[in-house]
Amino acid sequence: ENIAVTECFEWLLRSHLLHVKAVLEKSKRAANKMSLVEICACEAVYPKVVKKKLRGKSISSINVFTNGRTPLHAAMRRPEGPMRRQVIKALLSGGADPFIRPVDRNSGSSVVASLLEIEDLNGIAELLACGMSEEAFMNYKIGELTTIEVILDQNHQTYPPI
């Protein structure tokens, strides 16, 4: 009786793995037709596919806003984990600019500004760990305030001075 259950379970697992493999193969083919923003946002697309798509892209095309997002914006929306970090590293080393603002201010904001707006310090830390320039981050201004002043201002509301 246990042997039959084990064999049934193995068959189900094998079927599931074959299905997952087919979906991933399909996603590779589909990724060739997708825009850079779409493949950076899609968690089913592996980082190596993103890196392949980045080859031959100019820095200006990596920083293009599409519907208010750059490929780096899209990558930051992936679930946290090693695949997201690999995509972010690939984008940053390819010339993605986390500080770039759209020409039309109504069509979005920089990656850093949007992370600070939602108070996502983990996202900021991840960008820094993946290669974002610390100096550029420290000197970046949002309105009249530097990023550090914005963070301190946000935390001042939560943690009053001693």
Automatic annotation (TrEMBL):
SMART domains: ANK
Keywords annotated in UniProt: ANK repeat
Per-repeat ranges for ANK: 67-103
InterPro entries: Ankyrin_rpt, Ankyrin_rpt-contain_sf
Pfam family of the protein (one): Ank
Record protein name field: Uncharacterized protein
Source organism of the structure: Vannella robusta
